[in-house]
Write a structure and sequence with these properties.
The protein has about 325 residues and is an alpha+beta fold. It is about 30% helix and about 20% strand. The chain contains ten helices and 13 strands. A six-stranded antiparallel β-sheet has the order 2-1-13-12-11-10, with helices on both faces. The chain has a three-stranded antiparallel β-sheet with strand order 3-7-4. Strands 5-6 form a two-stranded antiparallel sheet. α2 crosses α7. The longest helix is centred in the middle third of the chain and has 15 residues.
Length: about 325
């Protein structure tokens, strides 16, 4: 269909690219799937194929944090030093809200030296942060996207809920939204049904490559889901009380506004609000977008690394304009 062709422009790059694409527009559904979940002898991708969400995971982590705030176990102004009293002193000025909105300034773990022969685990971030003596900038003074912040938020979920992060997020977020085929992945432990594995291109052929040294962390991108479950999530989220708080404006100062709320990005197109987030990791790219104002929902999951799903968001914005 012409609409799907315009959305896919410069995003679907190969005829054999694996993906699942869903677009709802004012009562009309557009659906398309292509490719395999693993090698050429594996199952076809469908709307129940389970993809790693990468950074789309952050909205689920943020939702869980907002839930814990409503439970009275945290506040937006809770300082990280309060939770981890053996952290360096500069954490006295970093709050939960700073972590959520990427204004903490804490160091990016991906820029540091690690043993890349083994997969980094979330708990190793604690020791890493203990070893630092300063942040990139004064907390709240600027915006810098931080995977480290969301790994730490995931660990905080476990710390203050007295539950494992997997248990808390699945019970209080995923299952609450009816997302019964979605998972918080403990790599090598969690059995993911209908799992779609990531691919890279080598010698012009698709090769399964699903993991690397920073693929096992949870808070910054370790959730898995399906198109069918993500459709439920969009409907659930926009009706939830937590969603209102997740849209807290991100003002660095009176003149500086950033589109990042709490685990979601919020943009305005022709006076209409659109909420979205993209994700990217080795072999997999994702996009979840919806707008109550425009009555649209766009979900795109692809198990190929050579693409940029933010282009699909731009393609949609151009169609709207």
């Amino acid at each position: 269909m012409e609409v799907l062709q315009k959305l896919k422009q410069n995003v679907v790059r190969r005829e054999d690219q694996g993906y699942a694409l869903y677009f709802y527009n004012n009562g009309v559904e557009y659906k398309e799937v292509n490719g395999k979940v693993a090698d050429e002898n594996s199952a076809d991708i469908d709307f129940d194929s389970c993809f790693r969400l990468a950074s789309v995971s952050k909205q689920f982590i943020a939702y869980a944090i907002v839930s814990l705030i409503k439970e009275g176990k945290l506040s937006y102004e809770t300082t990280i030093k309060t939770l981890y009293n053996d952290f360096p002193d500069y954490f006295e000025n970093i709050t939960i809200k700073n972590l959520l909105q990427h204004t903490s300034g804490i160091y990016d773990y991906e820029d540091m030296e690690w043993n890349k022969e083994t997969q980094l685990q979330d708990e190793e971030i604690i020791d890493f942060l203990k070893s630092t003596d300063k942040a990139y900038f004064k907390p709240g003074s600027t915006y810098r996207y931080s995977n480290t912040a969301y790994i730490l938020l995931g660990l905080i979920i476990g710390k203050v809920s007295n539950m494992e992060i997997k248990e808390y997020v699945e019970k209080n977020v995923l299952y609450a939204a009816g997302m019964n085929n979605s998972y918080v992945n403990i790599q090598g432990v969690t059995e993911i049904k209908n799992r779609s594995f990531g691919h890279v291109v080598e010698n012009d052929k698709l090769v399964v490559k699903d993991q690397y040294w920073c693929s096992a962390t949870i808070g910054d991108g370790g959730l898995y889901s399906t198109v069918n479950d993500l459709k439920k999530w969009c409907q659930f989220l926009e009706k939830s009380e937590n969603f209102k708080e997740m849209k807290i404006p991100n003002y660095i100062n009176e003149e500086s506004y950033n589109e990042y709320g709490l685990g979601i990005r919020i943009i305005n197109v022709n006076g209409k609000e659109i909420v979205y987030h993209c994700g990217s990791t080795i072999g997999t790219n994702t996009l979840v977008l919806f707008s109550k104002d425009l009555n649209i929902c766009l979900i795109f999951l692809t198990n190929l690394n050579v693409t940029d799903t933010s282009i699909m968001k731009d393609n949609l914005v151009n169609l709207i304009k």
